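wait is this the right file?? whatever heres the structure
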């Protein structure tokens, strides 16, 4: 059966060039980067080269980039590290209701340990209002953390403006840019952020590796304790093949940026266009203008997103309902809830995310299947007789 993967926001396949670059670092080039003999130095040099590549993609100095085990660790490090380093200044942080669980669950933990957290609401397209941030900042606020691109609905925040507000009040600013990297401009100088989280497996690199940008001089305590790796700021023997792969993936993301964005947004727009024209009672969640190039989040009224997902799966098509992390539970998506989507409509929502390997043919095939599946499910839904289906 034909397999069509439309869940690129959950993870991406590792590009062949990336795998090729990584391979020697599992075998011949296995030396510990901290060892002083030649094969150790070769490993260290590979990490240095990878650091330069990722730094170039976000326009920072290599000395401001720290490799981690992924987006989750980068988010945890920032929240725990900044609240710890600045505990004499205050115990208040500001984030939003639509963050990834790597932020929200870290905030739960912080709240249990004496930190006050403000969760900013968003408007119906998922945008944080500048005035809400302005009002939430107090003289005890030590950090503002707002995601750049939302993983469920694809809304792209005006990070530059939000960071400016935080800085006007002398508050540090972090952004979770895991969904943004490679998809929107992540130039940390232009955005003027102090911390930025990244992950390799969302940009066609390997899983289990990511990075945290720390603007030079920004106050943050260490999170991982042990050896002197990463300029004594993130202990643990480096994930050498992973870091090499992340470096290559970042290099390719930079080179392919325009083509990738053009390709994905063309597929996305065609998909949204056909679905909204050819299927009744559908609603596009998120912003139509400031949106992740490969994201389409659609509510199909009167039916369950999970049922659509399972029937698409039977046809070899992979999609997700809300975020991959919450799909195991029946609690409605916190993101769609924050956008004010009514609970019964949340249950009918499906996320389709497109990537480099996706073709226009794939998109048309999925829309054709989707039309049949939606018609079938609506026929058996409770409101079918009332609606005359
Ligand atoms: C995937 C994701 C993460 C987690 O990154 P991992 O590398 O999987 O730990 C964090 N934030 C956002 C917005 C994500 O999409």
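ok assuming it is, sequence goes like this
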């Amino acid at each position: 059966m034909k397999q069509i993967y439309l869940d690129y926001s959950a993870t991406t396949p590792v590009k062949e060039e990336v795998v090729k670059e990584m391979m020697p670092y599992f075998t011949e080039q296995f030396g510990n980067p901290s060892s002083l003999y030649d094969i150790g130095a070769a490993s260290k040099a590979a990490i240095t080269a990878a650091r330069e590549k990722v730094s170039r993609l976000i326009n920072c100095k290599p000395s401001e980039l720290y490799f981690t085990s992924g987006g989750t660790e980068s988010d945890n490090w920032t929240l725990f590290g900044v609240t710890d380093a600045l505990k004499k200044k205050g115990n208040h942080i500001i984030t939003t209701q639509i963050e990834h669980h790597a932020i929200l669950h870290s905030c739960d933990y912080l709240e249990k340990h004496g930190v006050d957290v403000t969760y900013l609401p968003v408007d119906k397209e998922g945008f944080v209002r500048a005035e809400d941030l302005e009002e939430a900042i107090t003289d005890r606020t030590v950090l503002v953390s707002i995601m750049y691109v939302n993983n469920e609905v694809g809304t792209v925040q005006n990070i530059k403006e939000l960071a400016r507000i935080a800085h006007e009040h002398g508050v540090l600013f972090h952004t979770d840019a895991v969904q943004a990297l490679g998809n929107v401009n992540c130039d940390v100088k232009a955005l003027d952020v102090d911390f930025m989280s990244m992950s390799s497996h969302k940009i066609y690199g390997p899983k289990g590796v990511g990075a945290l940008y720390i603007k030079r001089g920004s106050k943050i305590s260490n999170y991982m304790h042990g050896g002197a790796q990463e300029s004594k700021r993130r202990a643990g023997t480096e994930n050498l093949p992973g870091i090499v792969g992340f470096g290559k993936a970042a290099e390719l993301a930079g080179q392919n940026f325009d083509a990738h964005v053009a390709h994905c947004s063309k597929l996305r727009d065609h998909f949204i266009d056909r679905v909204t024209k050819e299927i009744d009672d559908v609603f596009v969640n998120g912003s139509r203008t400031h949106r992740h190039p490969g994201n389409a989040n659609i509510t199909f009224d009167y039916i369950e997103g999970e049922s659509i997902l399972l029937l698409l799966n039977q046809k070899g098509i992979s999609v997700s309902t809300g975020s991959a992390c919450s799909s195991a539970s029946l609690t409605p998506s916190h993101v769609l809830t924050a956008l004010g989507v009514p609970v019964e409509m949340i249950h009918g929502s499906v996320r389709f995310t497109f990537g480099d390997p996706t073709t226009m043919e794939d998109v048309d095939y999925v829309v054709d299947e989707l039309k049949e599946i939606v018609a079938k499910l609506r026929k058996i839904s409770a409101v079918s007789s009332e609606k005359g289906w």
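Residues 257-278 form the longest helix (22 residues). so i think its the right one actually
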